[in-house]
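Ticket #4471: structure output looks truncated?

Reporter: J.K.
Steps to reproduce: submitted the chain below (282 residues) through the standard prediction queue, then opened the result file.
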Amino acid sequence: MKHSLVKNIQEHYHGMSASHKKIAEYLLDHYDKAVFLTAKELGQTLGVSEATVIRFAVALNYKGYPELQQALQDMVKNKITTVERLRLALLDGQTNLPHKALSTDISNIQLTMEEVTSADFEKAVNEIIQARNIYIVSLRSATALGYFLHFYLQLLLQNSRLIHGVGTFFEEIRPAGPGDLVIGISFPRYTRQTVEGLKYARENGARVLAITDSLTSPLAPYSHHVLTARSQQISFIDSFAAPLSLINALILAVGARDSAKTADVLRQMEAVWESYRVYHSE
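Returned output as attached by the reporter:
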């Protein structure tokens, strides 16, 4: 596993040239600005050439500047606060926000489609279907994603539990063990209790599936399977369009695996919904 950018710089710093040290110090001190700069823009900011910036990246054992920039993004998304996100968004301008937000969502979905493999997706579906009980851990803003997944898995499989974690987190997840599946959902800035919950569940013998933004997520080391969905934001609010689309696909796949059973469940529920007038009708 590659070192973090900070550790990478620390290990190479004493052997760097003066211009490379200048770049390193700027990245560490002004990561919130550097993350948005191209190699050329970073060079212009520091008064060095674009080639020098690229050589700096290679000296740190990255394949090029794009890979270094990805490492910088991984560092930033774990440190940057909502206030800093808002400040950066305001620096980028407030014009045409609907277009920017929707374009970011579209890009996140497209990148997620490219990155999620059929093999990984099928393994996740198999884990869900084979589980004795399913525990869904999704806290803070990710609660909405977890509730959506729980609603439909409980409808289809009737073995899903949503962990709320309001003062009773470990009491709720404690029963998860061999034969059970814990699904953790968290995106930057990752919720500490979600990470701890997955670690606890795995040590307890449960299977663990993470739905997060990358394989470098702190959820990954404690998971048997990881599904990634992009969540890049343009301001202080995370974009959950791609994660929700991925979860929607999981639900559809689970329902399609035994379509006859799914149809029977839906017929039964339609009768209940109609009898108790759950939905509005003219």
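Triage note (M.O.): checked the attachment and the full token line is present. The first helix runs from residue 5 to 12.
Status: closed, working as intended.
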